[in-house]
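Annex B.
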Amino acid sequence: MIIHMKIHTVERPYKCNQCDKAFTRNGDLCRHKKIHTGVKPYQCNQCDKTFSQNSVLITHKRTHIGEKPYQCNECDNTFSLNCNLIQHLRTHTGKKSYQCNQCDKAFSINGYLIRHLRTHTGEKPYQCNECDKAFSKNDHLIRHQMTHTEEKPYQCNKCDKSFSEMIVLKDI
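C2H2-type domain-containing protein: predicted structure tokens.
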């Protein structure tokens, strides 16, 4: 607990002039400022994604090689990012710290709460660039965009038909 308190009381004299973040070292501030400029000099040689920090590129490369160095001590799940392990650990505790202020639902991950709040506000931040449709969830936009490309990535294992959405076929 003493170490945790020290983190919050340490002086952070290097302040970003574009947001409210502050840092203990000037180098950290310089790295942070890249997110505001959009400069992304570090490029993945396998998928062409670019990043503002080399450390993020190194972490990204784990997705290509399947490296998952973070293992749950409660089950066999492994993760490429420590933050994903931390989120996963909440599934074992059942702790749901993120409470909706509109209804009685609670969530273990803040992102799930943010996504849920859209059911109350009607917000649809994911806009199709081909038509006027908008969606509350990014995966719904991705699925919708297949209607424009006629992409059909899901194949029936009993016949040669392809589908743009995963469907469950029942035996007749």
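The longest strand covers residues 14-15. The chain is about 40% helix and 15% strand. Further annotation is deferred to the next reporting cycle.
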